[in-house]
Automatic annotation (TrEMBL):
Keyword field: Signal
Protein name listed in UniProt: LacI family transcriptional regulator
PANTHER family assigned: BLR1237 PROTEIN, TRICARBOXYLATE-BINDING PROTEIN
Pfam entry (one): TctC
Signal sequence annotation: 1-27
Source organism, top-level taxon: Bacteria
Source species of the chain: Variovorax paradoxus
The keyword Phosphoprotein appears for this protein: no
Length: 327
């Protein structure tokens, strides 16, 4: 091919690309022109709520629009997620999901939305390690104590969770399976109310996010039975892992933004860019450092791959535990 023909074809290709480039620039330039809503499908006070509000403040600065966080708990996060899945795909509704979003794919028999088709990944944000904690009045200090007490009084001990299908619920099910224990699951609408009842001694134990449990453990209001990490946590190096005590459970809470399917690529990429900017900024970096939260910034594609791996992981746990919930 001669040089003039090559130049002509390159020019034609460039002209053909102009409409899509113009649409991309138009979407970035016009959006947002009104407040943006982020739904958190949990009650206030948990890590997902904290991260969403922290990032929302920074997004409001860079997007130059109000970013409103709305708590919409219920049905193991299904209610809040469904509200956004059925919202207009115009870039003004997002949902901040956690592990339960991927677990519900297998756990809930009749989801009102399609996990794979009705929402699209925007940005993964943070991850918190889990600690298994109990009330001091339980008399438990180790997993050996738990095993002895649960075997002596089957069905009388309980574990709280953030809701059906949440990471705390499935971690409790893994604990039951691996230790062969009969422990009653008590679901709540978020970590906040579950933690309140754990502190009051209404439930025996709970897998919870280290950032919210740290102060209560350090003050003696709660007793740590172990960290649900592969190695000793950098945030709590003095606390033995569950694996060290013969029960290799790894559990955490992650959070990330999804948008309704059909939300324009340009808006998804812009939101991803701004979330990553917020995660790298001094305000979020310092809050994460103090809170013991790991930053998980990356692309929408990386988040999509992560979601698929989590669906597979929790699907295996749910099938082994033989648990399912009607939607």
């Amino acid at each position: 091919m001669n040089a003039s023909r090559r130049a002509l074809l390159q020019g034609a290709a460039a002209l053909a690309a102009l409409p899509s480039m113009a649409r991309f620039a138009h979407a970035r330039g016009d959006w947002p022109n009104k407040p943006v809503r982020i739904v958190v499908p949990f009650t206030p006070g948990g890590t997902t709520d904290f991260v969403a509000r922290l990032v929302a403040v920074e997004l409001g600065k860079t997007l130059e629009q109000a970013v409103i966080v709305e708590n919409k708990p219920g049905a193991g996060t299904v209610i809040g997620v469904d509200a956004v899945a059925k919202s207009a795909p115009d870039g003004y509704s997002f949902v901040c999901v956690a592990n339960s979003f991927t677990a519900n794919q297998t756990l809930v028999r009749k989801l009102p939305y399609d996990t794979q088709k009705d929402l699209r990944p925007v940005a993964l944000m943070g991850m918190s390690e889990h600690v298994l904690a109990t009330h001091p009045a339980s008399g438990l200090k180790t997993l050996a104590d738990l095993r002895n007490q649960a075997k002596a009084r089957p069905g009388t001990l309980s574990f709280a969770s953030f809701g059906n299908g949440t990471s705390a619920h499935l971690s409790g099910e893994m604990l039951k399976l691996q230790m062969g224990l009969d422990i009653v699951h008590v679901p709540y609408k978020g970590q906040g109310p579950a933690l309140t009842d754990l502190l009051g001694g209404q439930v025996t134990m709970m897998f919870g996010n280290w950032p919210e449990f740290r102060g209560h453990i350090q003050s003696g209001k709660l007793v740590a039975l172990g960290m649900a990490t592969a190695q000793r946590s950098q945030y709590a190096p003095a606390i033995p892992t569950l694996a060290e005590q013969g029960v290799p459970i790894e559990s955490n809470s992650w959070n990330g933004l999804l948008a309704p399917a059909g939300t324009p690529d340009a808006i998804v990429l812009r939101m991803n860019e701004e979330v990553n900017r917020a995660l790298a900024g001094p305000a979020v970096t310092e809050a994460f450092r103090k809170g013991g939260i790991a930053s998980l910034s990356g692309t929408p594609e990386r988040f999509a791959a992560f979601i698929q791996s989590e669906i597979a992981k929790y699907g295996d746990v749910i099938r082994k535990a033989n648990i399912q919930i009607e939607g």
